[in-house]
Design a protein that fits this description.
The structure holds two protein chains of two kinds. By secondary structure, chain A is α/β, with parallel strands linked by helices. Chain A contains eleven helices and nine strands. Classes of the chains: A alpha/beta, B mainly alpha. Chain B: It is a multi-pass membrane protein.
Chain lengths: 349, 316
């Protein structure tokens, strides 16, 4: 398919040495349908990048290609750390009824060290337990995963990422359908990885979250509409362009089922409070908390706003009560002190 | 009692051979069935069992009722069907289940036609439904040999298979090479189906593989426990089914599979994991209070309730 390649190079980040992940003229397709077209640029080592875009924009496909699971139709993906990429697929792809215990799931993260046959040593097992504790699932070691809530399941998968200990971490919609507390905890893990110099790329739908937590953004709508500092990419003009691209795709009769990603998540994109959004102010399905509780501060230097829910971090407050505490989550309410945003356990590497 | 349960095996050598063969199969085929269920391939096994028939029939046409010839023919045909269905659906862009259904219907019809061409109704019945009389020393060796190969291979591939079943995306991302393990797994399934042919027949060969595996889901919470339970249920079904076949003068395949089906019904009703009664008891317990439950996982999700973890302590 002849297509003009729009190549935007992100600004040189705090980069030193070769980029962790670089793509050049990358074109990805699904059964003849182009999902990503002519993408060029790089994810600098230690960068924390959000990939956003409308449905069918090729975000999941891009992540798959970065992880080496999707063969590019054209162009290249080059890695500075071959085979040291951890990928968190969309949670919906997992069979939650599978008879496996939490600790065993986490230990799958040791695969690169153990392979199919080697024994799990006590030291590795200790690391698995520590990872479970770090995501707040202490005492769940022998639980079958069928007993976990959606948020706990996502915590478990993050524990596996911790154990994988990869320098490049790719997350596909990591915060889908998780409660507010889980979101905050997982986000603090993300920041920890960022602080440790790992390269993190996450596909996200929540633009507010992107603005507050992600220094860099790649705006994708088949073509790359922007790649760089979040504030410069997520401009109203760019977002309009992305929406128009989406509408164009949706208007094509053959593009109905286009793209294998973003199953049914369209509402979140259109409902974002953009200029011209069809239903401004409508509650976003799946959004963990109202927009009002996310003060609009630009990224650089903006601290993560203190969570507006009480910080009763009992180890066991995740189970049946794993849903968002609705009562005190009012905008403008004084935020109780929070211990965990920075005070997460750091003994895991 | 003795006459009912033990005398048939004590008196008749062919029944002892059939029992030994079925027990060997129980130990190897039922755990494979567990993986088939977990991979949502329950019907694929059935397709393979039918798919081996033309190969078996070809062996029968060329060499008569010879176990090695029919076994090798069945192995080749089964592997061809297993690989062909996937390749066909990829090549034509169709759905894999549709290709499988088409393949197995054609295979079954071709097999029956081929056997009928040379053989009579007796051979056809034996091939389709199995016969304890068909379990001669060679067939017994085939069944025992299949189990001998399957168990170490399954132990060898256990971790990759579990990973591939549970999270194929993750398996691919860590380079676990799911394809190779999948092929090994399919080969083991075909081997066990072929081995089961003599005693259980083509139509029933997967009965001893799938029914115990489906029933075992209600008896364990880990893959290992479920596999062990499946082997146990299959062994029980083999012994009871052969007795039923002897006393009621039924073909051995349907008798064994019916017994396994009864055990499945009992498991679904009484099994502690997601059994009908267990669920009902848990629901009743939830209505009356937290103590009334059966300790089910859903009712007690708070590890904070454990002694020794003071609330408010940050988890570190």
């Amino acid at each position: 398919m002849p297509a003009p390649a729009i190549a935007l190079t992100p600004p040189p980040g705090p980069a030193h040495g070769p980029p962790a992940l670089a793509v050049r003229d990358l074109t990805l397709s699904h059964g003849g349908q182009v999902a990503v077209r002519g993408l060029s640029g790089c994810f600098a080592p230690g960068s924390l990048t959000a990939v956003v875009g409308p449905n069918g924009a090729g975000k999941t496909t891009l992540l798959q290609a970065l992880a080496g699971l999707h063969r590019p139709a054209a162009g290249t993906v080059s890695l500075s750390h071959p085979a040291r990429i951890a990928l968190l697929p969309q949670a919906a792809t997992l069979d939650r009824g599978f008879p496996i215990a939490c600790l065993d799931v986490v230990e799958l993260g040791h695969w690169s060290r153990l392979g199919p046959f080697r024994r799990v040593t006590p030291a590795l097992r200790q690391r698995s337990r520590a990872a479970l504790a770090a995501v707040g699932l202490e005492g769940h070691e022998r639980r079958p995963i069928g007993s976990l809530s959606g948020g706990q399941m996502q915590r478990l998968l993050f524990a596996r990422l911790l154990v994988q200990d990869a320098p490049v971490i790719l997350l596909d919609e990591p915060f889908n359908a998780v409660d507010a507390r889980t979101l905050a905890d997982l986000l603090s893990l993300l920041r920890r990885w960022h602080g440790e110099g790992r390269t993190v790329v996450a596909v996200l739908h929540d633009l507010d979250l992107v603005r507050h937590a992600f220094p860099e953004t790649l705006l994708l709508a088949c073509d790359c509409l922007g790649w760089g500092a979040t504030a410069e990419v997520l401009t109203p003009a760019n977002r309009r362009r992305a929406r128009m691209a989406r509408d164009w795709w949706a208007g094509e009769p053959w593009a109905d089922d286009h793209g294998a990603d973003d199953h049914g998540a369209g509402a979140r994109w259109t409902d974002a409070s953009w200029p011209g959004a069809p239903r401004p102010g409508a509650p976003r399905p799946g959004a963990p908390r109202p927009d009002a509780s996310w003060p609009d501060t630009p990224w650089p230097g903006a601290p993560w706003p203190d969570a507006p829910w009480p910080d009763d971090r009992r180890a066991g407050d995740h189970g049946a009560g794993d849903r968002r505490p609705t009562g005190p989550a009012m905008p403008g309410m004084p935020a109780p002190p929070r211990a965990d945003a920075a005070g997460r356990p750091h003994h895991l590497t | 009692m003795h006459d009912l349960l033990f005398a048939p095996f004590a008196d008749f050598g062919f029944l002892r051979r059939a029992l030994a063969g079925c027990l060997a199969l129980s130990v190897s085929a039922a755990p494979l069935g567990v993986f088939l269920v977990l991979r949502r391939m329950s019907l694929t096994a059935d397709v393979m069992a039918h798919g081996v028939l033309p190969g078996v029939a070809a062996g029968f046409l060329l060499f008569g009722l010879s176990v090695p010839a029919m076994g090798i023919g069945g192995l080749l045909a089964g592997l061809a069907v297993a690989l062909g269905a996937g390749a066909l659906s990829r090549a034509t862009g169709g759905r894999e289940d549709a290709s499988l259904a088409a393949l197995y219907l054609v295979a079954l019809a071709a097999g029956v036609a081929m056997v009928s061409w040379r053989g009579g109704a007796v051979e056809l019945t034996q091939l389709l439904f199995g016969s304890v009389l068909g379990v001669d020393d060679q067939a017994l060796l085939l069944m025992a040999g299949a189990a001998t190969v399957t168990l170490p291979a399954l132990a060898f591939a256990w971790r990759p298979l579990v990973l591939e079943c549970f999270d194929p995306g993750f398996a691919a991302s860590v380079g676990a090479r799911g394809g190779a393990w999948h092929l090994l797994f399919l080969a083991l399934v075909v081997l066990n189906v072929v081995a089961a042919l003599q005693a259980l027949g083509t139509l029933m060969a997967v009965g001893l593989m799938m029914l115990p595996a489906i029933a075992a889901r209600h008896w364990g919470r880990s893959v290992g426990a479920i596999a062990a339970a499946a082997a146990g249920i299959a062994a029980l079904a083999s012994a009871a089914g052969l007795l039923l076949s002897y006393h009621a003068d039924l073909p051995s395949g349907p008798a064994v599979v019916l017994t396994a089906g009864a055990l499945w019904a009992a498991s679904a009703l009484l099994g502690p994991v997601d059994g009908v009664l267990a669920r009902r008891r848990r629901r009743a317990g939830r209505d009356t209070g937290p103590e009334g439950g059966d300790g089910g996982w859903e009712t007690d999700p708070t590890p904070g309730a454990r002694p020794g973890v003071p609330p408010g302590r940050p988890s570190r």
